[in-house]
Write a structure and sequence with these properties.
- With 381 residues, this protein is α+β, with helices and mostly antiparallel strands.
- It folds into two domains: 2-180 and 291-380, Zn peptidases (Aminopeptidase); 182-289, Alpha-Beta Plaits (2-Layer Sandwich).
- It has eleven helices and 18 strands.
- The protein has a six-stranded mixed beta sheet with strand order 1-2-6-3-7-16, with helices on both faces. Strands 4-5-18-17 form a four-stranded antiparallel beta sheet, covered by helices on one side. It has a four-stranded antiparallel beta sheet with strand order 11-13-9-14, with helices on one face.
- Helix 5 (108-127) crosses helix 11 (360-373) and helix 9 (296-311) crosses helix 11 (360-373).
- The longest helix is centred in the N-terminal third of the chain and has 20 residues, at 108-127.
- The protein is elongated and about 80 Å long.
- It starts with a helix and ends in an 8-residue tail after the last helix.
Length: 381
């Protein structure tokens, strides 16, 4: 591990240059051309490290990028995403800046630094002569920030062929993520009866008023002590101030710690019934990103990571989070998954987004050590 750490430390400038190159190529999910420009840059850098790179073409979003290193009957999957929440031009407002030991820039923490760390870790394994029994596969997707609609199938396919999945999403206060809540989106639509609000208001049935009752009912389903959150984040309805509104909608975000909780919450939402019998209620959506639960397989991976960190002279901690990642998908299909192996820093989706520079080399070494020590076979799952 000392040799790996020394190599990663010696390549600190390379790591920073790689991160900066990827950040400069802004890649909002909704801009295919921009994501593909970043993907082409990444593809060239992966090939320079000896990767066998293929692109998974897409029409509406950027192409996904897959790279394979080494040989072996089994693989370990390094997983993450190219896309960011920031529009093209955001870098003018959030320029790449080094300050107080940190590097700031849009998308650097979530999660282009993680991509660069994975590249350095893979390079370190090769350069230090670590013998692996498996190949390493990287999958960098282009639509994680909007729900992984086009990439989920590829993520699950690669995971099913893997002994373990290591997710390069950013660390949370330096800790690895051993659990993530499941995420869901619902739309509640109320159809009422329109009428003139001044001439015959009693002939109408207000969709907005009914929706207000339903929002209060949704609030009653929240149970923060059990890790269940229900947030009505968007509402819309009505046409004119003097018309009893015929239609109103609410967009609802839910987070759940377990699949059991997801099933119970989904049933409760679908049992919602209108108070005004003249209105009609429709519920669509559901929990589309299952929870990553802290089961024995996750715990075993974290134990290996903690041993590697100890060999590097560090104490490694674990945590859970309410945010989702593609690790939710891989854990839910039974593949050992460990998340938060990317950069330490702060400010995901925020103007102060940054990574801590001195943490980068040792976290790359941590990943390299973890890849080299994983020994499970698919038959042991």
């Amino acid at each position: 591990m000392r040799e790996i750490l020394d190599f990663c430390t010696d390549q600190h400038d390379w790591l920073i240059e790689t991160m900066e190159a990827l950040v400069r190529l802004e890649s909002p999910t909704t801009d295919k051309a921009a994501v593909d420009r970043c993907g082409r840059e990444l593809e060239g850098r992966l090939r320079a490290l000896g990767g066998r790179v293929t692109r998974i073409p897409q029409t509406a979003v950027g192409d996904h990028v897959r790279a394979e290193f080494g040989r072996g009957d089994e693989q370990i999957l390094l997983l993450g995403h190219l896309d960011t929440v920031w529009p093209v031009g955001q870098i003018a407002r959030m320029p790449l800046t080094r300050r107080d030991g940190c590097l700031y820039g849009p998308g650097i923490y979530d999660m282009k630094a993680g991509i660069a760390q994975a590249m350095l870790a893979t390079w370190a394994i090769h350069e230090t002569g670590v013998a692996l029994r498996h190949r390493t596969v990287m999958l960098w997707t282009s639509d994680e920030e909007t729900g992984s609609g086009t990439s989920r199938q590829a993520v699950e396919r690669e995971a099913q062929q893997s002994a373990a999945v290591l997710v390069l999403e950013p660390a949370l206060h330096g800790s690895l993520k051993t659990s993530r809540k499941g995420c869901g989106m619902y739309e509640v639509t109320v159809t009422g009866v329109s009428a003139h609000a001044g001439v015959e208001p009693g002939q109408g049935a207000s969709a907005i008023q009914e929706l207000a009752h339903q929002i209060l009912a949704l609030g009653e389903l929240q149970d923060l002590d059990r890790g269940i959150s229900v947030n009505v984040g968007v509402i819309a309805g009505g046409t004119r101030i003097n018309v009893v509104p015929e239609r109103a909608t609410a967009g609802v975000d839910v987070r759940v710690p377990t699949m059991d909780a997801a099933i119970r919450l989904d049933a409760a939402i679908r049992r919602l019934a209108p108070r005004d019998v003249r209105t009609r209620l429709e519920v669509t959506g559901g929990v589309d990103r299952p929870p990553m639960e802290r089961g024995p397989a996750v715990q075993a991976l974290f134990a290996i990571a903690r041993e590697v960190a100890a060999d590097l002279g560090r104490e490694l901690t674990e945590t859970g989070t309410g945010g989702g990642s593609d690790g939710n998908f891989t854990a839910a299909i039974g593949v050992p998954t460990l998340d938060g192996l990317g950069a330490a820093g702060d400010g995901a989706h925020a103007l102060h987004e940054h990574v801590i520079l001195e943490e980068l080399p040792w976290r790359a070494a941590l990943l390299a050590g973890l890849v080299s020590r994983i020994r499970p076979t698919r038959e042991t799952r």
